[in-house]
Specification:
The chain contains 5 helices and 7 strands. It is of the alpha+beta class. The longest helix is centred in the N-terminal third of the chain and has 23 residues.
Amino acid sequence: MQTYTRVFCAVAIALCAAPIAALAADPRPCELFSTKEIASVLGVTPRPGQPTGPDEREEDEDGPASTDWSCYWSAGKQLVFGFGEQTFIVQVSRFRSAAEAKRAVKMMVKSVTQDEELRDEILVSEVPGPGEQNFWVSSKSSANSGGWASRKGQMWLSVNVVDVGKTLRPESLREPLRGLAASGLRKLP
């Protein structure tokens, strides 16, 4: 009987520790992609990535609570706020559960489609891709931009290019960014 109790306790501890260990590993967006991979999308070699986060976001009317990490790579002439003519941005968001991650994106899509100003500027399309949910987002603003967002469990990975100089077309970025999203999802904790 004592042996069964020890085995049961050992299994219970292992089962409880696995999710805790998974949550403890923070993503490092600056380490998800090499300079060469980013250059293949931008067409030029960027400066080293600049990390931000972790940023804790409380649950509010815009969505569930999350922890967000980002990394920015700039290429070209330095402009306002440290952004260059072309900027490659990676953001990883971790939610408390996969259900909350799904709910967050539904709320984001709803806000874009219901806001007349955003609806005229931002196109959001749910598309097949490497994650459990996938979106292509593009903009018609003064800065051409395109981005791929994919969900894996409770994590969202977003890879985006902002092109202030308008040398890249958002649709030309779609497949290269999809490939980077697939590669990045495999590397997430």
